[in-house]
Amino acid sequence: MGGHPCCYKQKLKKGLWSSEEDGKLLNYITQYGHGCWSSVPKLAGLQRCGKSCRLRWINYLRPDLKRGAFSQQEENLIIELHSLLGNRWSHIAGHLPGRTDNEIKNFWNSCIKKKLRQRGIDPATHKPLSEVKDDGNESEKKLPTSSQANKGNIVGMKKSFLPPQASSTAHESCSGGSGLSGKPSDHLLQCYSFRQINYADDMGVDRPFDYNTVPGSPSSLAMHNSIPVSTFPAPAIVAHQVNPSISLLSDNSGITSYSNCSGFSYCTDSTPFLWNCENKFDKQLSSTQVHSMVEDEDKWSVYLQMPYLSGSSYPDAEPCQAYSNIKPEIEGLQTLGFPHPATYNGLTL
DNA sequence: AAAGGGCGCAACCGCCCGTGG
DNA sequence: GCCACGGGCGGTTGCGCCCTT
């Protein structure tokens, strides 16, 4: 594209793609794959640069793209992930099958930002606007840039928590998983408690547990504190999406788990368990119970609510209507051992 | 009906990173 | 170590549509 060597070798077309160009690109990639993008336009008979072709394919022509408006669950997930990952759209997109980073970025900038502000939430920091001293422009600066984030900081993480050994070991450990031994696999550890960690850090209270003491999981310390962007969540294979917010994950150990990346993970092997906020398995669930939990989107949707959406953390925010509707369900779930979505270790988030 | 503003979206821009020579 | 290049990403721009005045 502009400025790129491939672009000024010859006069290349810019701007909107015609249906004829789309057809050429689609036919070529369908038949031969894209291979080296810089060679695609020539081979496909297009007067475009390779980057333009790549973008067109990824954002528009790819057959697995999901069309249409974002669902409420997708929106909630985007907000949740943005609070964890910041403006790392490609990583957020990785959690929404069929959605592109460009699409999510546009949706965020045009729609979600506005909604959050209307609810009294600063979209940049995910904190109440009343807590954000300066105007919006200033608060935007609080987000790490992508390059900063790629160097190991995570949104909301304080530097003091960065471990000395934060390194590639995190990458290495992510692909495994120790579920067979009865301990949480690393990818579950990784999914677990980000929200709690962020809130604990933000609110200046103790973290739920010391990662140094997590048995058999020294790597998870590095993982939690310097989470390499490319491995959040860990590179477990996303087999399919149970619903837009809950991934069915499989790792090398054969463990299958469900995770909503909100601090609640469920693992189903021969001994299904509920991993509670005490970081231990204290509740045995039958497969039927687990599947029931996962498949009941209404229940999950409650657990996916950001605390501020339920009005518990940010009094100025409007209470979530769905939350009040489903309150009896929550109480029922609590009797099963599920923590309240807006509490943690007795702390109201 | 025309002008203007808001909005959503597609595409470009500029930068960074990884790789290979 | 340096450079060229390809690929990828987030930020930004510009166009077209729609609604309001």
TrEMBL record:
Which ranges carry the Myb-like domain? Answer: 9-61, 62-112
Record keywords: DNA-binding, Nucleus, Repeat, Transcription, Transcription regulation
Region entry Disordered: which residue ranges? 122-179
Cell compartment(s), UniProt = Nucleus
Q: Where is the composition biased (Basic and acidic residues)?
A: 124-143
- A Pfam family annotated for this chain is Myb_DNA-binding
Record's Gene Ontology CC terms?
Answer: nucleus
Q: What InterPro entries does the annotation carry?
A: Homeodomain-like_sf, Myb_dom, Plant_SW-associated_TFs, SANT/Myb
Ranges where the HTH myb-type domain occurs? 9-61, 62-116
Provide any one GO MF term from the record: DNA binding
Q: Which PANTHER family match?
A: MYB DOMAIN PROTEIN 55 (PTHR47997)
Q: What is this protein called?
A: Uncharacterized protein
Q: Which organism is it from?
A: Trapa natans (Water chestnut)
